[in-house]
Amino acid sequence: MDNTPFDDKAERALSHLLEHFWVLRREEPEWYQTIREREKILKRYADDKLGFELIVHQHFIKLEKIPVEPKTWMGLRNFQEPRDYAMFCCALAFTESRSIDEQFLLSDICEEIKDLFPGPFPLDWTNYNHRRSLVRVIKELETLSILKSVEGEIDRFAMDSEQEVLYETTVYARYFMRSYPRDLLDYETAESILASEWERHEADERRKRVYRKLFLSPVVHRESENDPDFAYIRNFRNRLRDDIEKHTPFRLEIFKNAALLVAEEQKQGWTLFPDQKAIMDVALHMATYMRYYDTYTPDEFGTIRLSRMALETIMTNVRDIYGKGWSKHYREAGIASITNDVIELLQNWEMLDIEPVTNAYIIKPLFGRATGHFPKDFLTGGDEEHEQKS
């Protein structure tokens, strides 16, 4: 039996695996070695608590992170429309069919993507928007180390469809896609793929659902009166808190309508709220305004419904109070533009939903936990140092 303790090295390795798609031995040799040294205890914890498989390969290590339900923010950050994803899948089919280190031209993958593309209208490389989609796809493949540029630059293709780039496939090209319990063609919907994930976790599905929600999402909200996942968190909160604090650098916080993991300090490589982006100042001031200055009352699940007009009115009032301390961009931007940026940010952090039928904006309980303010003498013309956030 392996008696290696779940020590600080294992804790840091687990955090790194959760934060990154994979660890490439060539790019991160120290992390690769650390994970190898703690491989058995990491595999045991990942499988027992989250139902995740830790894949250890001679060239990379990958924790297969499968969410309970897909969220908008889980998409590839630089992709802008469904066409990008369709082209990305076609490109993966192309790279998987190539030998390791096999070289090919950009025109080769263009031709293959065009032939495989499933959309109702064919791709046209004379169309600027189609070329921009391809540029985003190729850049993502390079970022993931699936493709390696040998000669040339893909950005030139955006302006000229005749531009060539020489690429080669890497050893990682065949490992990006995860394996499925059955042939992928046996699944008719994305929902059926996610549902099949629980076939091997029936005995402890609830615990693993809860762990996945806590570790992969910013928050777990109580969605109904008898929400079974949230009830599990409340009923086993002490056990969950002890386990999470023992094995990770996070602390479990539980409120009436929300549960979340909180980091005690900022660490490089983590994605945390708030970060240093200028839009965070706006969002934190909006949270403060709604908490202390506004009269909206949350419902039993801690949510607040707002129309677009009401949201823009709030934003106008927030700017009147705090705007002089914002970045130049947001001091000069229109209210509609600022509101759109805040909506996108809050959606990505699961602090806001848009109701499909009415298009009402639903402010979620997690937003109520945020607040931000300037030093007391800032608004009166005194110290104009950096904004304080909490």
UniProtKB/TrEMBL annotation:
Protein name: TIGR02678 family protein
UniProt cross-references to Pfam families, sorted A to Z: DUF2398
Alphabetical list of NCBIfam families matching this protein: TIGR02678 family protein
InterPro entries reported in the protein's UniProt record: CHP02678
